[in-house]
Amino acid sequence: MSGNRIQPRSVARLAAVQALYQMEVSGAGVDSVIREFGEHRFDRDVEGEQLAAADETFFADLARGVVTNQAKIDQGIVKRLASGWRLERLDATARAVLRAGAFELMYRSDVPTEVVINEYVEIAKSFFEGPESGFINGALDAIARDARD
Predict the structure, then answer these.
(1) What are phi and psi of 88, to 5 degrees?
(2) Band of the pLDDT at 82, cuts 50, 70, 90?
(3) Could you say which DSSP state residue 149 is in?
(4) DSSP H helical segments within 42-112, as ranges?
(5) Residue pLDDT, tens place only, 99-118
(6) Its domain of life?
């Protein structure tokens, strides 16, 4: 059973995507959202089940990193969208997944490319049942080639 336990960084990535989404739709600032997650969402019991522990430092680094570097991250994403597509045309959740993944690919060279892409594709699958995860896979792969080659 412990082999199925979600890794703390995986939990942090999912939380970062949720936080980025929350910031976009509510207009909340990064520090208040990080504080909210730390106080109310991590290490909590939900309906009798203990949630997996998150790497809270990694979570905060992801959230702050995306916000700090969002203009450059968005440029990297837009470069890989189909001709004529604008970032705003994407679903807010897809934008959050792409931004978090692109941040890691562009600014966290300590994390292997394959790990980043796989983690965010799995996160996308948890939100979408359609072709979005394939789109995110392709976009992150292209961003990785731009950022790491």
Answers:
(1) -65, -20
(2) confident
(3) -
(4) 56-68, 70-78, 92-107
(5) 999 999 999 999 999 999 99
(6) Bacteria
Which CATH number does 2-148 carry?
Answer: 1.10.940.10
What are the residues facing 46 on neighbouring strands?
49
Burial class (CB in 10 A: 0-12, 13-18, 19+), 129: exposed
Non-local (6+) Cβ contacts of 98 within 8 A are 77, 90, 120, 136, 139, 140
Tokens matching residue 134: 């394939």
CA distances from 148 to 44, 60, 81, 120, 135 (A): 37, 23, 18, 17, 20
pLDDT at 47 over 90: no
Q: Whole-number mean pLDDT of the chain? A: 89
Q: What is the pLDDT of residue 1?
A: 35
User: Closest Cα partner for 87 from 145, 143, 35?
Assistant: 143
